[in-house]
Amino acid sequence: MKRPFWSAALLLIAITSTFARADLNSDVRAVLQDKALAKAEAGVVLARVDENRAKPEILFRHNSDIALMPASNLKLITTAAFLDRFGPDFKFRTILAQRGQDLLLIGDGDPSFGDAELLKRVGWESTTVFSNWAAMLKKRGLTSVRNVVVDDSIFDENFVHPNWPPKQQHLRYVAGVGGVNFNANALDFYLRLGGGGSVVSYSTDPPTQYATIRNDCLSSNENAVWLSRMPNGNVIDLRGTASSSNTVPISVTIHDPAMFAATVFSETLQNGGIQVSGEPARERGLRALLSEEKSPATQPANRATVLAIHETPIATVLARANKDSMNLYAEAMCKRLGAETSKSSGSWESGTAAVSSFLKSSGIDSSEFSLDDGCGLSRKNAVSAKAMAQILARTFASKNRDLYIASLS
Questions:
Q1: What residue spans of 272-345 are helical by DSSP H?
Q2: Fewer Cβ atoms within 10 Å of its own Cβ: the N or the C terminal residue of the chain?
Q3: Is the dihedral of CA 73, 329, 166, 246 positive or negative?
């Protein structure tokens, strides 16, 4: 049986002679005949695009109409659909509000919130936003609160796609997606060695008691460290042997991103001198209580007051999805599309339906695609090379061209 292999390329340069075109076609055919692809089914389109034409000029095609598994190439379609729907000025907005003695953390699905790898580029840590909020509240005279309450209702509570690899859910690229995300929904470990044969010590980023850590990792001359976590829980096993301390983190995903964020925020408040008497809690639908979104005549009795808003521009999220190939980012955009179009909690069903509508509006026949998620991790995704070329050509001819191209490099 041939294994499916998908490829699409779009030339953004002019081919000025028939010789160059023929030479290119010959080169591509040589690649397709390589023995490494002997058992593969490949789809290829090479095309020329024009900023004044939304359809590609096809220069070479091979199995171009056959829908094959796109893997991470699907992110190109998801991000194009998201940019087309929301536009270049869109920002994810994570809101801090207050209702009585409770602090409210209201999510917008921002996949970058507390992303340590992203934040270190600007000199921040994963908890810097929370620390800044705690300092602001302390300056305003707040010394104690009852609870941190999180609202992740912008998305549903199906964090992990049912068609993702079940035995890999502890790995960072299979991180669940929530209406509130934090540090890419993973816990990062840094190890410190003791004497030979002794149990290593560790620190985590973010520093938190959210998960239960069972540490059986020993100092040794050999380095074979692994982290594991059973699905639907937060008991993490640290095992193996470590021969040196690490500066690059070893990561494991967490279960329930919103409660993870709420817990870390509660801990950060307490570390900043603000007492929290209760435990973090979830309450969906809090956005309806925000005073900034209601006229005085329609204010609910238990209205909430907005204290701060953390915004992430669309360009940041697009680049993390396309350039860095972060699955979480593509999935957050998929579900956010679903929330926007369905006017209810975003899901994979509503998100993929929104992306499918984008494909159909681009003139792509439904036989050329079948979508199951937003990042391509599910093996039930299928897209033709011609469909991909059409989406890239449409985006290149749109007002979003420069922003989209910037997300790729």
A1: 314-322, 327-342
A2: N
A3: positive
